[in-house]
Amino acid sequence: MNNYINSTITANNSSIDFEFDKQHIWHPYTSMSHALPAFGVISAKECELTLDDGRQLVDGTSSWWACVHGYSHPTIVNAMQEQLHKLSHVMFGGITHQPAIELSKKLVNMTSDNLTKVFLADSGSIAVEVALKMSLQYWQGRNQPQKQRILTVKCGYHGDTFAAMSVCDPEGGMHTMFGDSVTQHEFVSAPQTQFGQPFDNSELDEMRAKLSSQGNEIAAVILEPVLQGAGGMRFYHPQYLVGLRQLCDEFNVLLILDEIATGFGRTGKLFAYEHATHDGKAVEADILCLGKALTGGYISLAATICSDEVAQGISDSPAGVFMHGPTFMGNPLACSAACASLDLLSRNEWQAQVSNIERQLQSELAEAIEYPQVKDVRVLGAIGVIEMNSSVNTAELQQQFVDLGVWIRPFSNLIYIMPPYVISAEQLTKLTSAMKIVAKSILTCGDQAEFISHG
C-alpha cells in the first residue's frame, strides 16, 4: 500500500494532506514536477473562501466564472438535498425524469425563440463537442456531407477536449502543442473593434472572403459572443455578430454561439448575444452552448440547444439518430441545481447586481491605466480586467493576492475578476484594491516581469 494513503499533514492544525496532493494529484494546467502551490480550502459561504489556516479570502473568480450566486446558497443547497434523497442519478437512455424536463422548459423559454431542442451534457467542453457533431451530422441529413469544416476566429477558447481544442486559437492558444493530432479547421482574424467603439464593417471582409471561397465545405462558424474569455478577456463589438449572422445565412452555414462563459448575466445581458440586435431583435444562433453558471457553479452540467431545423437535419441523416450519449447526461441532481439557479435568476435581481458591479469596477479600476506597466483597463458587466504589458508570474501574484485576503487567479498578462453577483460593495473594493496594489507592484523589463514589495 502506498505510504501516502493514510498520511495526514497536521501542521497549523490543517486536515489537508498537502504532500499527497503535491505528489499524486494533477491540478489544471500544472506540472507534476514543478507544481504551482495549492492553497487548501475547507469551506465557502456567500463570497468568501475559508482556508485551512482560518484565513478568509474574498473570491474574485466565482470558481472559474460559475458561482454567480455565491457559495452555500440555501435555495440551491436545499434543492440538491431534496433531489439527493429522491433520485441522484439514473441513465437517460430510455428514461426521463422531471428535473430534466423542468430544466429544459426553462432553457427553451429563456433562450431565442428558434432554439427548441435541448441536449443535456456534463461539461462545457462536451457541450461544444456536441455542437460540432450536430453541425456535421446536420449536413449529412441535408445531403451535403462534404460540409465537414468548422470556421472560427482567432483568440478563441472552447474547451480542452480534442474537437473543442481544434477550434481554439491555433497560434497563441494553450493547445498548439498537439499539432497534427488536432483536426485542422479554418480561422480568420479575431474581431478588433472594441465594445462601445464605432464598428468598422471591414472587419467582416475576411470572414466573407473565407465563406465565399470555402462555404461549400464549411458546416458551421463557432465563436464566443462579445467576450473572448480564456483567449485574452477581449470585449468586441456586438455588430460583428449581426454581420456574421447575415453571412452565415447568405452562405448556408450554421452559427454556433458558445455562451459557456458569458451566459446567465455575466456581460450585463442574460445572454451575451442579446447585445447584438438587428431591427430590434437579438441575433439567433442555430446551436447554443451553455455551462458554468447553469447550475450556479454547484455541480457540473452543460446544455447544447438547437433549432427545429438542425434537429430535423440530424434525424434525416443516415444514422437517423444523434450519435452522442454521455453516461451522466441529464443527471437529475445537476438538473435540480440548475433549476434552482435559474429560479434565482428569474427574480431579476442579477440585473441590478451586475449593473452595480460594472459601475463600481469602472470607477475603482480606472486609475490603473495610469500605471506605466499597464497596457489596458476594461470592464463589461461583472468583468474587470487589468491587462499588463508583459506576462505575469502566476505563482508570485497568487501569493500576493492571498496575503491581501482575496482569491484572484491571473493568467498570461491579465489580472482580472469575475466575482459572484451577490458580492457586497465592500468586498468588491477589497478585490479592486488588491488588483491595483499587485498591478502597481510589477516592474516590467522586456518580456520578463519582476516584482517589488507592496509592504
TrEMBL record:
The record marks 29 as: Participates in the substrate recognition with KAPA and in a stacking interaction with the adenine ring of SAM. Its cofactor is pyridoxal 5'-phosphate. Its main location: cytoplasm. GO terms for biological process: biotin biosynthetic process. Its EC number is 2.6.1.62. Keywords: Aminotransferase, Biotin biosynthesis, Cytoplasm, Pyridoxal phosphate, S-adenosyl-L-methionine, Transferase. The modification N6-(pyridoxal phosphate)lysine is found at residue 292. It comes from the Bacteria. Pfam families: Aminotran_3. CDD domains: OAT_like. One of its GO terms (molecular function) is pyridoxal phosphate binding. Substrate binds at residues 64, 157, 292, 325, 409. Pathway: Cofactor biosynthesis; biotin biosynthesis; 7,8-diaminononanoate from 8-amino-7-oxononanoate (SAM route): step 1/1. Gene3D superfamilies: Aspartate Aminotransferase, domain 1, Type I PLP-dependent aspartate aminotransferase-like (Major domain). Pyridoxal 5'-phosphate binds at residues 124-125, 258, 326-327. It catalyses: (8S)-8-amino-7-oxononanoate + S-adenosyl-L-methionine = S-adenosyl-4-methylsulfanyl-2-oxobutanoate + (7R,8S)-7,8-diammoniononanoate. It is found in: Cytoplasm. GO terms for cellular component: cytoplasm. Catalyzes the transfer of the alpha-amino group from S-adenosyl-L-methionine (SAM) to 7-keto-8-aminopelargonic acid (KAPA) to form 7,8-diaminopelargonic acid (DAPA). It is the only aminotransferase known to utilize SAM as an amino donor. Belongs to the class-III pyridoxal-phosphate-dependent aminotransferase family. BioA subfamily. Homodimer. PANTHER family: ADENOSYLMETHIONINE-8-AMINO-7-OXONONANOATE AMINOTRANSFERASE. This is Adenosylmethionine-8-amino-7-oxononanoate aminotransferase. The gene is bioA.
